């Protein structure tokens, strides 16, 4: 998941080179039929329709079993890996089995970074005592070329690093130890306030002559699970320390500033690999040229099964379309489920999807992304103008019985954001669930199938299907 990184930082990590002729966009806007007016209050027909979707999900939902296969049988799915290709094949077969009108692949070249077999970190005291600590390479890091031992300088911000004299940094590890701000109610905001040190830390340390970067894991949990995640390319290795390891290193540094750290990693970057987005469609009955996209990212980090990040988003997106079909609804606008490839370390799948949408002169009404885990549904974040946000907010009474009526302005998602620069949807929408536990397991070996609750997952698919039903019926 990149979707909680502040937009300015995300642009520094991922280059989104997108364009669309303004004249074509103007023609498309003029050609659109006028959408039906959104209901001012809950309509009984719509209430019954949403109840039908939730009944189908809770009694006969398929998200949980689909996720079981994706995570337990295929497992980790880092871009460029054999498992990523297996996931593509699974996604295509699952959509075809669901009976969608059209299922196809979109080719995209993706980075191929390999973690390697050895990751070892030790604190070495003045008397030679070695303390083994939990570490993992950050995605995209270079290897250490054997054992790398050096002194350590601790900082909490780039400004603090900038103010250090050269001799305090050169030849050492820079240890970034800024924790989450636990006073923030929304953990995603705490993540956004800390993640720049992971993404840019090694690159900034290299500018000062450091030999490596050590980064406190992006979580408020105090445990020994290091959290990986993408980093900006750098000439020196970057590694994450578990929060317990970071606390221990910080404490020992205060008592013994001359201690050293020894790091060993075998990661490397191989040539780009061919991969695919997986796309399934239900064609609109009245306005087939108007598209509503819903998706999650198929790739995952390699430490675990990628259950919450983002296996849940993938199976919920497929399920949203299946629920509409199973409930007997014929969407008025075309509904498209997309399993994006390479969100975690490049966002190339989302970029390519947006490029092809512009090339094919498609009209996108809205795009929805699920990339915040499969926890209890809460609502939706919208990137849209005030009028569009107000229209969607009028549907809150329909969604309230299911606890998914929190509709407000907010971040949507990394994979759908490129659409804004190419085909200009009226709204980019992020599915929002309870995120309090998400960053305990995010990008760690603990992101496994057993952490997902079946009812929470199935409720999420029904919530997304409900919003799609309303968007398809009333448009924006």
What does this structure look like?
The protein is an alpha/beta fold and 476 residues long. It has two domains: 7-112 and 271-474, Aminopeptidase, CATH 3.40.630.10; 116-266, Glucose Oxidase, domain 1. The protein is 37% helix and 24% strand. The protein has an eight-stranded mixed beta sheet with strand order 1-10-12-11-13-16-14-15, sandwiched between helices. An eight-stranded mixed beta sheet has the order 3-2-9-5-6-7-8-4. A hairpin with a 5-residue loop joins strand 2 and strand 3. Helix 4 (63-74) runs antiparallel to helix 11 (307-326) and helix 11 (307-326) crosses helix 17 (454-474). The longest helix is centred in the C-terminal third of the chain and has 21 residues, at 454-474. The relative contact order is 0.19. It holds the Pfam family Peptidase_M28. It comes from Hymenobacter ruricola. Homodimer. The monomeric form is inactive while the homodimer is active. Its main location: endoplasmic reticulum.
């Amino acid at each position: 998941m990149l979707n909680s990184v502040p937009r300015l930082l995300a642009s520094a990590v991922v280059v989104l080179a997108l364009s669309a002729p303004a004249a074509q966009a103007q023609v498309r806007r003029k050609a659109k039929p006028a959408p039906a007016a959104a209901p001012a209050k809950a309509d009984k027909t719509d209430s019954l329709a949403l109840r039908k979707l939730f009944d189908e999900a809770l009694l006969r939902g398929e998200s949980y079993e689909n996720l079981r296969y994706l995570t337990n049988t295929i497992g980790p799915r880092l871009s460029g890996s054999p498992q990523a290709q297996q996931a593509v094949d699974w996604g295509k077969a699952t959509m075809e089995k669901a009976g969608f009108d059209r299922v196809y692949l979109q080719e995209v070249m993706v980075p191929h970074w390999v973690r390697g077999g050895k990751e070892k970190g030790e604190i070495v005291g003045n008397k030679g005592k070695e303390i083994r600590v939990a570490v993992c390479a950050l995605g995209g890091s270079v290897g250490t070329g054997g054992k790398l031992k050096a002194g350590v300088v601790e900082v909490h911000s780039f400004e603090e690093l900038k103010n250090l004299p050269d001799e305090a940094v050169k030849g050492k590890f820079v240890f970034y130890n800024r924790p989450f701000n636990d006073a923030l109610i929304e953990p995603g905001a705490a993540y956004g306030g800390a993640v720049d040190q992971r993404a840019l830390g090694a690159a900034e340390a290299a500018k000062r002559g450091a030999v490596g970067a050590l980064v406190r894991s992006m979580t408020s949990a105090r445990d020994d699970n290091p959290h990986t995640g993408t980093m900006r390319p750098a000439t020196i290795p970057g590694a994450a320390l578990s929060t317990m390891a970071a606390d221990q290193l910080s404490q020992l540094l205060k008592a013994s500033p001359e201690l050293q750290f020894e790091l060993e990693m075998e990661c490397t970057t191989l040539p780009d690999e061919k991969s695919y987005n997986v796309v399934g469609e239900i064609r609109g009955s009245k306005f087939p040229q108007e598209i509503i996209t819903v998706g999650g990212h198929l790739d995952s980090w390699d430490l675990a099964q990628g259950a919450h990040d983002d296996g849940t988003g993938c199976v919920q997106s497929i399920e949203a379309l299946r629920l509409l079909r199973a409930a007997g609804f014929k969407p008025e606008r075309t509904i498209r489920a997309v399993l994006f490839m390479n969100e975690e370390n490049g966002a190339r799948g989302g970029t390519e999807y947006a490029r092809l949408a512009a090339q094919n002169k498609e009209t996108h009404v809205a795009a929805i992304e699920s990339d915040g885990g499969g926890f209890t549904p809460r609502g939706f974040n919208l990137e849209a103008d005030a009028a569009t946000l107000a229209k969607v907010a009028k549907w809150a009474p329909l969604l309230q019985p299911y606890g998914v009526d929190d509709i407000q302005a907010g971040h949507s998602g990394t994979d759908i954001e490129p659409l804004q620069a190419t085909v200009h949807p009226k709204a980019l929408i992020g599915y929002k669930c309870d995120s309090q536990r998400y960053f305990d397991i995010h990008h760690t070996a603990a992101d496994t199938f057993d952490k997902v609750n079946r009812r929470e997952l199935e409720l999420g698919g029904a919530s997304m299907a409900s919003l799609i039903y309303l968007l398809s019926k009333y448009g924006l």
